[in-house]
Specification:
seven-stranded mixed β-sheet, 473 residues, 13 helices, globular, alpha/beta
């Protein structure tokens, strides 16, 4: 049996792990988009289309959760010859549908931009468009998604069983627990997916996993702790007070449309419903956020007890006075002229394209505006620059702008567990019985620090794989 690491190696995005059995059965755990690779970057051309392996030889995909850095290449795998099924939870299937269709819509615009640029300049170097799938490829892929309930042992091959264990992090997100028999010997694996945090708005806490031989774990926050100690509604109330009430200002919140936006809307609803907070106009500027909020609303049975109780008492998790969903680009741009104090929640969380760029560009020089960063941003993104103190001048869409807006940051809405959560996850495993721990989905220095942290508590069987590296099990 062999395990090859084809993504999320020494970086945060692009999860893709290939497990090959002695009988030539092949399982791909996650098939994500590398969000840290610039679209125009010159990329090597693998032997098999855009993949470093033959997609037609893959028998099965197991998907931990719907985020694009875990699911975004699935339509391309089908396009390149994969004919198997995609196993995931029902909520992951529902969220995956709207996320992949949203990616296809973005790809359609990229195709148009490529076509227009070629018409303008015949000398322009061709841009590789092989990864740009469209709606038809997404729908073809979705026909092969098969939902599996949490905690149900599912036989996916004669000598292999899968169990999805709740991971927190996102609605439907799962740890993947595999039991494999090979030559009469049982071998067990856990692929963590993204590990959630305890007491997160809406979601269940990450559930414990059984003892395994091989643990593949994410390390996004493997070198730091979450700094926000107060409850989400307390922190958000303090910021709204400073940004919109003490002064008649505008609060801009870059937020991922799926997961984080729902946590924020639920928190605002609690503020307005339970705390008597003055309802300020809230603009949710993302059609994707609206669609994912509907999925969250109908999936309340998967949420924690506090969320279920709130829904029973108030009929809705997310609807409240003065909440407005912006549908069109025209409506989105018009909000920049809204004269009263307001809150604008818009994608993307890292400020890498999307409507949020317009809102940041329109407000970065406004001393009455506050920009609130609420989660992780990859190095080099505009979100990263805002988080890391580039506060005098920023270039946005080629325009140099002075930074007069107030920049604040909290991490109480981050869906990733921090260092303590990751240590607890690993400590569920016996130091002797666990044969190997592989660190993925984190920046290299973070992984190295986490490896040292584990060594200090006598977990010494830890590897940091390189991309394309294969391990015999």
């Amino acid at each position: 049996m062999k395990l090859t690491f084809w993504g999320a190696t020494r970086q945060v995005s692009g999860s893709m792990f290939l497990l090959e059995f002695d009988d030539e059965y092949r399982v791909l755990i996650d098939c994500g988009t590398d969000l840290e690779r610039d679209f125009n970057e010159e990329k090597p051309k693998p032997e098999y289309g855009i993949f470093p392996f033959d997609p037609s030889l893959i028998n099965l995909i197991i998907l931990t959760h719907a985020h694009i850095d875990h699911s975004g290449q699935i339509p391309n795998l089908f396009k390149e010859g994969f004919e198997g099924q995609v196993l995931c939870t029902k909520a992951t299937m529902d969220l995956g549908e709207i996320l992949l269709l949203d990616s296809a819509s973005l790809n359609q615009r990229k195709f148009k931009a490529i076509h227009d640029s070629k018409k303008r300049s015949k000398k322009r170097k061709d841009v590789d468009s092989r990864e740009l799938y469209l709606e038809r490829q997404v729908k073809d892929a979705l026909e092969n998604f098969v939902p599996i309930p949490f905690d149900q042992r599912f036989k996916f091959k004669d000598d292999g069983y899968l169990t999805f264990i709740p991971a927190g992090h996102l609605l439907g997100a799962a740890h993947v627990y595999l039991e494999i028999w090979e030559n009469g010997e049982k071998k067990t694996f856990c692929f963590s997916g993204d590990i959630g945090r305890k007491n997160y708005p809406l979601l269940l806490d990450p559930q414990p996993i059984p003892q395994v031989d091989y643990l593949i774990t994410e390390t996004t926050y493997g070198d730091r702790h979450h700094i926000s100690e107060n409850k989400p509604e307390e922190l958000l109330a303090e910021i709204i007070q400073r940004a919109c009430i003490d002064i008649p200002g505008r609060l801009i919140i870059p937020s991922f449309s799926v997961g984080r936006t729902q946590a924020m809307l639920y928190t605002l609803n609690k503020l307005y419903t339970e705390k008597g907070f003055t309802p300020i106009k809230v603009f949710t500027d993302s059609p994707l956020a609206k669609a994912s909020t509907r999925i969250y609303e109908k999936s309340a049975k998967l949420m924690n007890k506090a969320a279920r109780d709130f829904r029973d008492e108030n009929e809705s998790l997310f609807d409240f006075e003065n909440l407005v969903y912006l549908e069109s680009n025209q409506a989105s741009k018009a909000v920049s002229n809204h004269s009263e104090p307001c809150i604008i929640i818009s994608a993307s969380g890292m400020v890498t394209g999307g409507r949020i760029e317009h809102h940041i560009q329109a407000n970065i020089s406004n001393p009455y505006a506050t920009i609130l960063m609420v989660g992780y941003a990859s190095e080099g993104t505009l979100g990263w620059k805002l988080l890391n103190g580039e506060r005098k001048e920023l270039t946005i869409n080629g325009e140099k702008l002075p930074v007069n807006a107030t920049i604040e940051k909290i991490d109480v809405f981050s869906g990733h567990g921090d260092l303590d959560d990751l240590i607890d996850f690993v400590k569920s495993q016996d130091k002797v019985k666990t044969k190997k721990i592989f660190l993925v989905h984190g920046e290299l220095n973070t992984m190295q620090n986490f490896k040292n942290t584990l060594a200090a508590i006598d977990y010494n069987q830890v590897e940091i794989p390189n991309k394309g590296e294969t391990y015999e099990m």
